[in-house]
């Protein structure tokens, strides 16, 4: 039976014999992970899980999408939102569904109190677009999307700075005028509109502005990663692959 005393003994041997560090960490992951959720298990510090602001924002977002268990991904997007709130520029999400990620960012940074920023929420609000899906988009059919337009628009109708745009990306992108973007979240599970959104918004992203590619490292989403990598290379930047599966891009 694996337990802490075996772990302690193994710890003493770490570094002395080849492979002991990996074995020790593997056993720690089995016995005492600090996080095991959403395809990610670790023994690293995750104090953010106890942070009051994080908890409040996460639980408020759960009202829109009950049962979501993607806390580290949310932590990353909240950080990105916080970072963007210190820059000049608006917030954009392409691929909103029930607004779980976007509302957790809004709650985390008290977006209601930031009068000079807008948060644009682009989605068909009824799922992916058949003729945009290529055979390489292996994960594109994985989820069924119900119509969430009423849910999302009624959730934000008391804040005129949150703009819900129903339509197909990329056609819908030019229907509103957005001058500068500090935060862009891309999560459409499909390479074609994701690349189009990157191309459309890149010139508008301010220096230091942040892009989160939600599906970047997930299996079945390799086509989205491929187009994001090609795009970044052309722009002379690099996507940071995060252990959460997300990709992070900062305009420098
Ligand atoms: C994975 S969900 C987004 C999840 C969301 N970010 C959240 O916080 O839960 C993908 C969304 O992308 C939208 N979508 C896919 N292709 C689209 C397109 N071409 N234009 C607009 N929305 C699209 C779908 O309707 C769906 O709501």
General description of the model:
The protein contains 8 helices and 9 strands. It is an alpha/beta fold. It has 2 domains: 19-48, no CATH class; 51-250, 3-Layer(aba) Sandwich (Rossmann fold), CATH 3.40.50.150. The strands form 2 sheets. The protein has a 7-stranded mixed sheet, with helices on both faces. The protein is globular and about 65 Å long. The structure holds S-adenosylmethionine. Residues 65, 95-98, 100-101, 122-124, 127-129, 132, 145, 168-169, 187-190, 193 line the site of S-adenosylmethionine. The site of S-adenosylmethionine has 22 residues, from helix 5 and strand 4.
Contiguous uncertain segments of 5+ residues: none
Shape: globular
Can you tell me the CATH superfamily of the largest domain? Vaccinia Virus protein VP39
Gyration radius over CA: 20 Å
What is the makeup of the main sheet? Answer: 7 strands, mixed
Going across the biggest sheet, name each strand in turn.
Answer: 5-4-3-6-7-9-8
Descriptors:
alpha/beta; 7-stranded mixed sheet; Rossmann fold; single chain; binds S-adenosylmethionine; globular
